[in-house]
Amino acid sequence: MIIEFGHGTHVGLRREHNEDAYHGDAALGLWLVADGMGGHEHGEVASALARGEVVAAVERGQRLDVAIDAANRTIIEHAQGRGAGLPMGTTIAAVRLDDGRYEAAWVGDSRIYHWHDGRLRQISADHSYVRTLVEQGVVTAEQARRHPHRNVITQALGVTDPESLRVERVEGAIARGDQLLLCSDGLTEEVDEPSIAALLARDDLGAQECVDRLILAALEHGGSDNITAILIRAR
Fold first, then answer.
1. Residue 67, SS3 per DSSP
2. Most buried one in 69, 122, 131, 162, CB count within 10 A?
3. Are the CB atoms for 10 and 184 separated by under 8 Å?
4. Where are the domains of the chain?
């Protein structure tokens, strides 16, 4: 199986700084997106710390959920050491590929999608206030997209106490023709899933060109946040 991937990030149209961080390494089989929060020199530090900790832990052979848990503790310790007045936090969505299998783990509302047999499915589950409302039947999924509190997350690295952190993890198979999309909410806030699926379905676009068009679509629809996406294709 040959792995092709495209990647990109953009500050968006309303932010002064890009607090997102990402990593892609086909040799290690690791890809991740982290969406920092807390303002300049806080959010971008948190997302960079998460990226560095997870990469180093996976290189040592640790599972993704263990690596992410360690990243949470690292960010908290860093913030305490700085005496930061502002919170320093980040979401994370990560995928590890090995011999036709994937391991996915996440905290927050950065997402992981699996394209298989012409269908797009979100395999992560947002740690967000509106997801709770949807699960309780208070609002529909479509209403959640427009809810005024749709950006409120319930779990984040550096913000959630280590004893309360819930790193979710799933495993699955990836076949030739499948695609995995990792992205920050700067993409999904502006581009709906049918539009994402329509781009992933195009055979005439390479992985990098597809990522470029996803980011462009988010900008065309407002670009209200930093936008980061990684698209992994198995051929």
1. helix
2. 69
3. no
4. 3-234
User: Which tens digit of pLDDT belongs to each residue from 153-200?
Assistant: 999 999 999 999 999 999 999 999 999 999 999 999 999 999 999 999
- Listed in sequence order, the residues at least 6 apart from 21 whose beta carbon sits closer than 8 Å to its beta carbon are 33, 34, 36, 44, 47, 48, 50, 51, 90, 228
Distance CA 147, CA 37 (A): 20
State the amino acid at position 16 in one-letter form.
E
pTM of the model: 0.94
CB atoms within 10 A of CB 135: 9
Question: Is the alpha carbon torsion for 218, 220, 226, 232 positive or negative?
Answer: positive
At how many degrees (to 10) do helices 64-82 and 43-59 cross? 140
| CATH placement of domain 3-234 | 3.60.40.10
Taking the C-alpha atoms of 168, 175, 25 and 109 in order, what is their torsion angle to the nearest 10 degrees? -30
Task: Enter the tokens of residue 29.
Answer: 């089989």
